[in-house]
Description:
Blueprint: E1 7-9, E2 12-14, E3 18-20, H1 37-45, E4 51-53, E5 57-58, H2 75-90, E6 95-100, E7 118-119, E8 128-131, E9 134-137, E10 142-143, H3 149-165, E11 170-174, H4 180-185, H5 200-203, H6 205-218, E12 223-227, H7 241-254, E13 259-263, H8 275-282, E14 286-289, H9 294-302, E15 308-311, H10 313-317, H11 321-327
Helix pairs in contact: 1-2, 3-6, 7-8
Amino acid sequence: MSLFAPVALGDLHLANRMVMAPLSRARADATSREALDRMAIYYGQRASAGLIVSEATHVSPYSVSRPGGAAIHSEAQMDSWRQVTRAVHERGGLIVQQIYHVGRKAATEQLPRGASPLAPSAICAGGEVMTPVGKRKFSVPREIETHEIPGIVAEFQKAARFAVRAGFDGVEIHAANGYLIDQFLRSATNHRIDQYGGVIERRARFLLEVVDAVASVVGKGRVGVRLSPAPMDDGTHDSDPTALFSYVAHALGVRQIAYLHLVEDVSLNASDRLSLALKRAFGGPLILCGGFTRANALDAIEAGLADCIAFGTLYVGNPDLVERFRAGAPLNRLRPEFYREGGDEGYIDYPFLSESNLFVNKP
Length: 363
């Protein structure tokens, strides 16, 4: 296999095996959380990727992160994303929308009517959240009542339906990085005693209900799930991650979704890796993400360790990353100060190998 060879992920037919990982660049409208014109330019510039996974996009007004984080729980937000999908499709690309709920990591000041963040259990996340007035510690969340859970599942389903209407080629469910679904999965953050807590099968129930609801409106061949088995600095970890994520991977494989997207740092020791076991348990296409370079991405694909490799930071500064990798060309210098704040600078002004391909004036 080659990194530059085509591949099918369910019903998605990719021109190459390079995936643009979801990147939270915080360039949406700070008030409405609608996608802006510059976001269409940004994603369109990167359309040569085999697949683009959009930035994590909120499914609910009760899921609110840093200013500039995008959402898709209203008609206006949905409409705003159409310019993004159009820009990618006009340049021959594919794009799926990553949808999520931040759960206990919500910014309390921005929630409706002063509500508390929601979580499977009333356990505060470690670390800080960015608010319009700066960083502050996370608030103690309110435990979600059992009867409320179907409503949250319905929010994911509605967001998926909106994604299809906005022109996305599929949906990736964000079940990683310590957000709400991940909070349900892990023993350290889920102390429930109902049908959504306790043994692994019950902790995985929320994720699987979301997957089934999303697949019912998108089609299973256009649904992906992102997982991150490693423990998080915010206190999101599990007592037996191998058993947990092997069960989840197998359950997702039974559902025949398009792909599993696994976050596992390339620097991990072989004894600490779960990717091979989870690839076998899932039985379908695997996207692997975690600090890959051109060299070790080529090696991973040729060795059959994954079907695709996702690149995050490298896509920030190199919109034509596929072309640069194919030619063995040098990469642009990154500007970290613009990763998650700012306007056009450090967002849509990175040069292409051929400057004639650079478009910054229109989506």
